[in-house]
Amino acid sequence: MDTEKGSFKSLVMRQMLEYAMEIEIISSNPFDRIKIPKSRLLKPEVKKPSEQEVFFPDERVALIEYAFKQYEEKRDRVQIFIPLAIAFLLYVGLRRGEVTALRFDDITGKQIILHDSYSHDMKCLKGRLKDGEGWRTVSVVPAALDIIEKVHEERERLDMPTEGFIFCVNEELESFYSGLGKMINNYCEELGIPKRSLHKTRKTVASVLHVNGVDDLIIQKEFGHKDLRTTQQCYCYDLTTDEERYEKIAQSLA
Question: Is residue 228 in a domain?
């Protein structure tokens, strides 16, 4: 095997394992411990356009508002808190399996301490072991805390358990997990927004932090990435529209 072909295959393997980690098939990417010099890579990774990977600011606001509206208007589903979970994910960049397994006792002040994640493939909870820095923690902004408080109040009003899972009802983890993906597709269609997967809410939150000046190292820690390159190359996107970019360029060169 020549050097160029070997380097290219290594790049492909790294990207496959990174994707497997993001969709929670594996818990870590062993290639994070292997550094391949850029000069040896046959083809550098090309970043996908923002419109495929994130929701733009006006789309994010529209989705949050629509999720709250849908929650108030449609209460006949078993998993009634899915709309609020979607709004929550647009404030807190959790993975789908993490928000599915999220419990009230995971919330400590202004932080989430992640103990579990739901595995869609294994159809069960998988404990998240401590790493060298301890449990992974995620910041919960005031708007997200308000959503959790709303769920708690609604559970009390509906005489539902106020301990255990926050959003998932009756411990039916699989139906909740699957319902999240279907619901956001429905919302996009109803709002006339190009469809993007639920995972794009995670990339949207990272990009919002990035464009508002939060250091990439902080974003890396919040999102649980072992490699900073994952944060920078796969999660931080430009959130300006074509027209906004043109205006910025025109003003700069006037």
Answer: no
